[in-house]
Write a structure and sequence with these properties.
single chain, alpha/beta, eight-stranded mixed β-sheet, 10 helices, 19 strands, globular
């Protein structure tokens, strides 16, 4: 099979930065892409005050967007700006809706497709550059795992028909695979290419969001864990809204949350050249390898039903490293920079949700293993809810909204913020 004409000859790796004007103001981006039937997002809220609990990925995104719209924002976190307690710090930050469709629902896949257009917009509005790549996903397998790969191929093809806006996968023979990833040609005879998928650098993004919060005068409260019960939204001297984005830190309020443990290794391997995220099909330990800048590779796969945050086990580490070496022998001389564990906040159905337990409090949680892939959609739905008390996007994403417990409070008058 010849390499498809649509194949990107070189990976699209963009350091997206935006020149900040002298006034420091940034334009408010349209929340909803025109391809979803809306050319503009809802009108911004009247000036309000927000307390955001949890400064992981969702908390920082919301803080920046709300501050950019002119609201007063305080954000509280148990940790530091390094986000050492956040699952987002450990993640590989892959944006792979079709690849992830093998283990999730169509609504989440649509959220992931939404993110592929929204992330470039969100990153372009930041003052600091963030590595972003959209060169597709490669899936490979060893000959003995052909049956498992065929089953996965059928599943992905069926899922693509359910979400037809996703580009169809492309089957690669040896020649096409060699053209896509020359360094893998001697080890694999065939593969799958999923066009349009991407990744970003999670730690660069988290750091850039801290800079943006500072630039927008968000008041940050590090090492200051808070719970919704601390606040009385709408009362004198209190915020109008409390947005709870604490992940597993919110388990006391959202008892259905559970942790799903992941173990990830970061390796510097100058002898390895991979141009895009690569996944290995394997019946026991399928892995992903996400190549970042400067020959840094993030490798993971393990999922353990546990909220245990102890160090990685010997078995998991051996499986991860052995599988990585089986993909590319250059990993043998790589240097292990970090072996990290973290637990993903997960609800019983493995799907995200937004709920309002009482007046002026919104809880955003359950992003599971799809945090970076679905965060833009969760951001846009939350902003719609804050503005209108409902969300059209949530219907498209089959996203659970529980807003029945209390009416939405009216936004404060601008004078109340003076």
């Amino acid at each position: 099979m010849a390499l498809p004409a649509t194949w990107p000859r070189y990976p699209i790796q963009v350091m997206l930065a935006w020149g900040v004007s002298k006034s420091g103001a940034a334009p408010v981006l349209s929340m909803v892409a025109s391809q979803h039937g809306h050319t503009d997002g809802p009108m911004p809220l009247q000036p309000s005050s927000f307390a955001i609990l949890g400064a992981g990925l969702m908390g920082r995104l919301l803080a920046v967007e709300l501050a950019r719209q002119g609201h007063r924002v305080d954000i509280y976190d148990a940790g530091s700006p390094a986000a050492e307690h956040s699952a987002a710090t450990v993640a590989a930050a892959m944006l792979a809706p079709l690849a992830e469709s093998a283990i999730t629902e169509p609504g989440v896949v649509r959220m992931g497709h939404h993110a592929l257009t929204r992330w470039p917009q969100l990153l372009a509005a930041l003052a600091e550059p963030v590595f972003f790549q959209q060169a597709g996903t490669l899936i490979v397998w060893h000959r003995q795992d052909t049956a498992e790969a065929q089953r996965l191929t059928r599943q992905l093809e069926a899922n693509q028909h359910q979400v037809p806006e996703l580009p169809a996968l492309q089957k690669l023979d040896g020649a096409a695979l060699a053209q896509a990833e020359p360094t893998l040609a001697q080890r694999f005879a065939q593969g799958l290419y999923l066009p349009g998928e991407g990744q970003l650098d999670n730690r660069q993004l988290l750091a850039a969001l801290v800079v943006e919060m500072q630039r927008l005068s968000v008041r940050t409260h590090w090492h200051s864990p808070q719970s919704p019960e601390t606040f009385t939204p709408g009362a004198p001297g209190q915020p109008d809204w409390v947005l709870d984005c604490r992940g597993l830190g919110a388990k006391g309020q959202w008892s259905a949350l559970r942790g799903v443990r992941g173990e990830v290794v970061r390796i510097h391997a100058p002898d390895v050249t991979l141009q895009r995220p690569t996944r290995l099909v394997h019946p026991r330990y399928p892995i992903y390898i996400a190549p970042k800048e400067d020959h840094l590779f993030v490798i993971g796969a393990t999922e353990i039903e546990s909220d245990d945050l102890s160090p990685a086990s010997v078995r998991s580490t051996l499986e991860l490293l052995s599988a990585a070496y089986a993909v590319h022998p250059g990993f043998a001389e790589g240097r292990i920079l970090e072996l990290a564990t973290q637990c993903r906040p997960t609800l019983p159905d493995n799907l995200p949700a937004i709920r309002q337990p009482r007046k002026g409090v919104l809880e955003i949680n359950g992003l599971y293993r799809h945090g970076f892939m679905i965060a833009p959609a969760m951001l846009d739905v939350t902003l719609e809810v804050l503005n209108a008390g409902q969300s059209q996007l949530s219907q498209r994403f089959d996203l659970a909204l529980d807003l029945e417990h209390a009416p939405l409070p009216p936004p404060s008058a601008a004078a109340a913020l003076a």
